[in-house]
Amino acid sequence: MYLKVFKLISIFGSRKIFIYLTIIALFPLILLSFFNNPASDDFDYGFDSQNEAYFPLQIRRYFQWSGRYFSNGLISFTPLTYSNLFFYKIVPIFLFLLFLFALYFFISNIPIKLSNTQKLSYTGLCFVLYLIQLPDVCEGFYWIPASLTNQLPTSLTLLLFGFLMKYKKTRNPFHLVLSILILIATIGCNEITVVILGFILFSLAFYIYTFQKKINYLVLLILGVYIIFSFLEIFAPGNAVRASNIKIKHQFVWSFFKSVQLTISYILKWLPIILVCCLFFVKDICNNFKAKNHFAMHPIISLSITVTIVFLGFFPGVWSLNGQLPDRSINTIYFFFIFSFLYFFYTVIIFLKDKLNFEILFSKRVKILFGILILSHFLSNNTITTAFLDLFSGKAYAYNNELKSRLHLLQNCKTQDCVVPALIHFPTTIYNKVDFGLTDDKNNWKNLEISRYYRKNSIIIDPIDSLHTE
Fold it and tell me: Cα–Cα distance between 304 and 314 in angstroms, integer?
């Protein structure tokens, strides 16, 4: 009896805890995908793709709406283009699995020797860290226009650096070509990724040239490709057209200090659990990274890079919108913060070990305490617990049935002006109140988009109760 209890408690001090937490986290998130439904821009993109040829549509969007050439191209294949709701529900599952694979691939190609258990544990660590503090999982994985624009490039970024490290090890030209193609695709997804990725690449080139006294031609090649395609993305005519529709007077000084404030507040918000997880793996860092082959900047430099990455994520959006970014954009910033902070922590441990001959070591009991703290955070109010509640409360099931009934009503509506009941159930994991839902105003942008898709003059809701309007 006591032996079983001891073994159970010891799991909290084992790196395998992150493997178990990943499995637990995936369970509700994947099941909820089958209750996921399209909203607003899904119908708009679906309508355009049904009525315009693919390449003329991409050209029009590039010149009239957005320079996001890759994500716009993918969105044109949204399942709503083919009126297929089943495959719409499959896309989030693909994105979850792709993100997991990209994490594993990236970690597997870091130039150190790791066991399969270590690779899986570090993959689970990053996956769990990302999910439990993700600002908006709905826009991150479930809503296709946002997920292909913001979540997909995070996976592509991991694959990019994974293939670059693989090329450095194998010198196989195929890996280099794949890296370049992935870089081009990543740049074509959203502007925040372009800005942060550019900062990382230029920082890497500067560090190698300044501190290692050599020119890395691989980095220069990647930088050249980055400059060309980021120019095509950022300076697309469509970006200027869309910006002209936003009547905002840009305020540089206000935007700068607002971005500083957001940087500080979000770092302090995200930091505690990430720091606990880092302390959990101190021994692994000391054992796996040897002085002769590690790539560690001075901690002050890596800390500056970490803070700058977060600031650069916020500033362009704050400046262009005179306000805070949508959560789907903050998802991207959080992704880059996780990896930049993990690298900063690594540089601290290496600095203490190499320069000061000092190692931070924790006993098994302390690691178990860290594991319990991590589990406590995992069980607190976050994306994962909300997903379980949405699933097992029946809220997601009821929401899906409501939308099935709505679809049936729309398909059988004989007039050009249709009225449907308002939704009652709103599962947070798969429903975003800003971008989802309808109103009783036929001229509301969300009503107009769904009306166009179903070829109706108007579609509005008839509120069952004022508390339940969408």
Answer: 16
Range 328-348 average pLDDT:
95
* Phi then psi dihedrals of residue 112, to 5 deg: -140, 160
Segment 67-85 shows an average pLDDT of 93
Instruction: Report whether 124 contacts 101 (CB < 8 A).
Output: no
DSSP structural state of residue 37: -
Q: In the chain, count of helices (H) and strands (E)?
A: 22, 2
How far apart are alpha carbons 182 and 204 in whole angstroms? 19
What's the confidence (pLDDT) of residue 3?
Answer: 47
The predicted-structure confidence for 205-234, as pLDDT tens digits, reads as follows: 888 888 777 788 888 999 999 999 999 999
Q: Distance between CA atoms of 422 and 420, rounded to whole angstroms?
A: 7
How wide is the angle at C-alpha 83 spanned by C-alphas 80 and 88, nearest 5°?
A: 50
* Higher-pLDDT residue of 209, 457: 457
Instruction: Yes or no: say if 282 and 360 are a contact pair by the CB < 8 Å rule.
Output: yes
Is 0.85 surpassed by the pTM of this model? yes
Between CA 437 and CA 444, with CA 443 as vertex, the angle to 5 degrees is 35
Euclidean distance between CA atoms 272 and 270, whole angstroms: 6
Residue 163 tokens, joined: 């293939």
Give which of 346, 217, 333 is closest to 265, Cα–Cα.
Answer: 333
Number of Cβ within 10 Å of residue 63's Cβ equals 14
Q: Which residues contact 63 (CB under 8 A, 6 or more apart)?
A: 236, 237, 238, 241
198, exposed or middle or buried, with CB in 10 Å at 0-12, 13-18, 19+?
Answer: middle
The SS3 call for residue 203 is helix
Residue 5 scores a pLDDT above 60: no
**323 secondary structure, DSSP code:** S
Residue 418 backbone dihedrals phi, psi, to 5 degrees: -115, 145
User: What tokens does 437 get?
Assistant: 């839902």
Rounded to 10 degrees, the C-alpha dihedral 190/196/199/203 comes to -140
